[in-house]
Amino acid sequence: MKEAPQLYQKKVLVLGLAKSGFTAARILNKLGAFVTVNDSKPFEENPEAQELLNMGVTVICGRHPEDLLEEGFELVVKNPGIPYTNILIQSAMQKKIPVWTEIELAYLISEAPFIGITGSNGKTTTTTLLFHMLNQDNKNPLIAGNIGTVASGVAEKAKASNVIVTELSSFQLKGTVAFRPTIAIITNIYEAHLDYHGTIEDYRTSKMKLTSNQTTDDYFIYNADQPLLVEHAKSCKAKLVPFTLKGRTEESVSADDNYVYWQGEKLIERSKIMLAGQHNLENILAAAAATLIQGGTKETIIRVLTSFTGVKHRSQFIKEWQGRKFYNDSKATNALATKSALEAFPENIILLAGGLERNHSLDEIRPFMDRVKVLVTFGETAQRFTAFAEESGVQTIIQADKMDDAVKKAIQASADGDTILLSPACASWDQYDSFEIRGDAFISAVHQMTEANE
User: Fold this and answer.
1) In whole angstroms, what is the distance from residue 237 CA to residue 219 CA?
2) Tens digits of per-residue pLDDT, 183-217?
3) Hey, where are the domains in the chain?
4) How confident is the model at residue 327 (pLDDT cuts 50, 70, 90)?
5) Of 154, 158, 226, 290, which is most buried, counting CB atoms within 10 Å of its CB?
6) Where is each Mur ligase central domain found (predicted)?
7) CA angle at 316 for the pair 315 and 320, rounded to the nearest 5°
């Protein structure tokens, strides 16, 4: 870990604990900063705060005193989930106190370079694919960020021989100042998280911060099929590496209906790629380009693409049984995500959908409902999905209770050649505590019911 003399004896407020706040507070304390932690959870229920207190960190729990910033803090490091409308964050900005997320801290202390990946969709799959490709090519990657591993904790242990493959959200990037990845990837940008950012302009600006400090020594990999990113690339100092799904080009990485290409040469036949879906092809192109820039080999890329079946709960291939293929896309908690999943399969889909009622529009998936042979719906939105499917011309609509019942009815209604796809287009919280638990219930039911009939 690098020393950070600019933080030594600086008075720092860490706002919000969870994993990222705890790690940031511990590292800042180790660097010699005077750290105060403020978290809403009561101290007696807060083991992280208790541990930090034992390290000598000042801890204020159970409330957020409005006058806290009167104590002369020189820096605020906030949990990414805390909105900028928070009264303490507003006060800090008015006082011109810098507000960081722990990504900035990770960059300051890391001996290893960063590869940063962001986008409205696909960043987890791209991050995971790239990590596997670099790992199999012995490039010493570490994985971090929004994918679940706190970046500053990874950076603390990283060596110069490593590279940190980092998934980054707009929430995290908004709180960066000097952060500079040697390779930056933006998979795509759509309208999202307006409840947090307030405007689409702030959301986009936060995403684009990924490239703002790059130099001519760095690389920017971007989706050339999005005019917004093409325009942004014009102002970037990094070497530009566009990717496109609109046919073979001599420039960097591209794809047509049959092949993926690198600089115009065939890299892999698309039919040999295990990861299904046009949306996943964007992720594949971005990961392949970054791997080759980082010194990886085409052979490793091919080996990964012919074996990688997807990130868990994101169009994850489960198994094939009696001619039916089962896919778990429980992460699809909105219509746009389900649209991407439906695009991956041209026909004969048994779609399992439904969940928490948020009154979100389903119009994104309407053009693809002609691919749905049977709809099995469940949860609070069951009736609305039923009406929507009837309007969309789906011939067979089945209502189920929870996941085991939905899987059972889906199998009963299916035939050889069908795809049984869980892509709910809704959050899980009406029946399950998380989309992960919902997806695990699907996987368990699939294995239980197919193995009973083998």
Assistant:
1) 9
2) 999 999 988 778 889 899 999 999 999 999 999 99
3) 10-100, 103-305, 316-451
4) very high
5) 290
6) 117-290
7) 115
Q: Which two tokens stand for residue 258?
A: 């049959």
HSE on the CB side for 283, CA within 13 Å?
30
Mean pLDDT of 284-303: 97
**What is the CATH topology of the domain spanning 103-305?**
UDP-N-acetylmuramoyl-L-alanine:D-glutamate ligase (3.40.1190)
Structure token pair of residue 301: 């890329």
Distance CA 407, CA 414 (A): 10
Q: Report pLDDT digits (tens) over 152-184.
A: 999 999 999 999 999 999 999 999 999 999 999
What rounded mean pLDDT belongs to the chain? 94
Q: What are the φ/ψ torsions at residue 322 (nearest 5 degrees)?
A: 50, 45
Tokens of 107: 């960059």
On whether 309 is known to bind a ligand per the annotation, the reply is no
Judge whether 148 and 186 are in contact, CB under 8 Å.
no
Count of Cβ atoms closer than 10 Å to residue 272 Cβ: 11
The dihedral built from the CA positions of residue 330, 331, 335 and 340, taken in this order, carries a sign that is negative
The model's confidence at residue 445, banded by pLDDT at 50, 70 and 90, is very high
Tokens of 221: 């990999």
> Residue 44 gets which letter from DSSP?
G
Beta carbons of 287 and 124 less than 8 angstroms apart: no
Which secondary structure element, helix H or strand E, spans residue 133, and what is its range? helix 123-136
Q: What is the pLDDT of residue 309?
A: 80
Closest CA to 166 of 155, 175, 178, 176: 155
pLDDT for position 414: 97
| Long-range contacts formed by 46-49: CB under 8 A, 24+ apart | 46/17, 48/17, 48/18, 48/21, 48/22, 49/17
Please tell me the CATH code under which domain 10-100 is placed. 3.40.50.720
- Mapped onto helix, strand or coil, the DSSP state of residue 49 is helix
Going by C-alpha positions, the residue among 298, 188, 286 that lies closest to residue 242 is 286
Based on DSSP, count helices (H) and strands (E) in the chain, helices before strands.
16, 20
Confidence at 336, pLDDT banded by 50, 70, 90: confident
Is 316-451 in CATH node 1.10.10.10? no
Residue 43 identity (one-letter amino acid): F
434 marked as part of a ligand binding site? no
124 is in an annotated binding site: yes
**What span, in angstroms and rounded, lies between the C-alpha atoms of 137 and 298?**
10
Q: Tell me the mean pLDDT in the region 22-37.
A: 97
User: Is pLDDT above 80 for 454?
Assistant: no
Residues 6+ apart with CB under 8 A from 452: none
